[in-house]
Amino acid sequence: MTNRNLVSIHDLHVAFDSELGTTEALKGIDLDIKHGRTTAIVGESGSGKSITALAMMRLIQRPGRVTSGQILFTPAGKETIDVLQIPDNSDELFDLRGGKMAMIFQEPMTALSPVHTIGDQVTEAILTHRQVTKAEAFARACEMLKRVGINDAEQRMNQYPFEFSGGMRQRVVIAMALVCDPELLICDEPTTALDVTIQAEILALIRELKSALDTSVLFITHDLAVVAQLADDVVVMHRGRVLEVGTVRQILKRPVHPYTQALLAAIPTPATTGRLDTVAELLTEENLLPYPLVTIKDDQKVALPIDQIPEALR
């Protein structure tokens, strides 16, 4: 397993303008996504998880804007590029979206056209990014639908999204995202709209395809149980800042930041008695002051002053 950074984000700021002023959604984000690994971004709603992913794909729309920072992307065997410096409407940006990076969204029905067949939509993704014939694209689309667990793929290609269950629609979206062999797959809470048994199937599928296709994964979620199953590395965000970074074992077994500790304390267990405290009840404003990230033992990172970090971890 290589430790090469596929994506490195440095001091990323994103703001949204309104009649009431400017709101900073990301306040100097720093994070790395390593090749061949699954990186999970966790945090409460509004912490900036999805905005980070949209910025990576250059999908921030007005009134939002990236105000500063770098998003460095290093494809295999090629030079590093700064995603934010790619010209708008260029072939390079077109190739980045859906070609080198692909995204699975939270609700599959918003990602699929209700008036086009599944076959048209999956083959369009291939024809857009690959120089192949329609027959070759159709064969590739069928192959990918089979790979994500859709039986009778040739017949299913002629059906419409409303003829699929929620779990099957999400499999189609995964097939569309992976059909062009992207180096980075971004999953924005892809199991939230599904029931528990289907969630488990989709997570297992993502894990299997990531390994088989040698794809790096950025997984956005608020569910720490999903993180424990899927992630190699974890980034904890709150109010547009990164508060802690480490391996999944470090974050779940040895959390250092009070916010991370509060998130874990808010998970019910069989031993839980009485009412759980909320994250807000377990924190003070002092816990959340904007300290810079510092590196501690075993390359774990935390946004705290040195004197607030246990001596054994400094």
Mean pLDDT: 91
Q: Name the overall outline.
A: globular
- What would you say the CATH architecture is? 3-Layer(aba) Sandwich
What's the number of extended β-strand segments? Answer: 12
CATH topological fold name: Rossmann fold
How large is the radius of gyration? 20 Å
**N→C terminal distance:** 27 Å
Q: What is the total domain count?
A: 1
Structural class of the secondary elements? alpha/beta
Largest sheet strand order = 6-7-8-3-9-10-12-11
Helix content: 25-40%
Element-by-element helix/strand order:
EEEHEEHEHHHHHEHEHEEHHHEE
CATH superfamily: P-loop containing nucleotide triphosphate hydrolases
Q: What would CATH call the class?
A: Alpha Beta
Q: Which regions are unreliable across 5 or more consecutive residues at pLDDT < 50? A: none
Number of helical elements: 12
| Main β-sheet description | 8 strands, mixed
Strand content: 15-25%
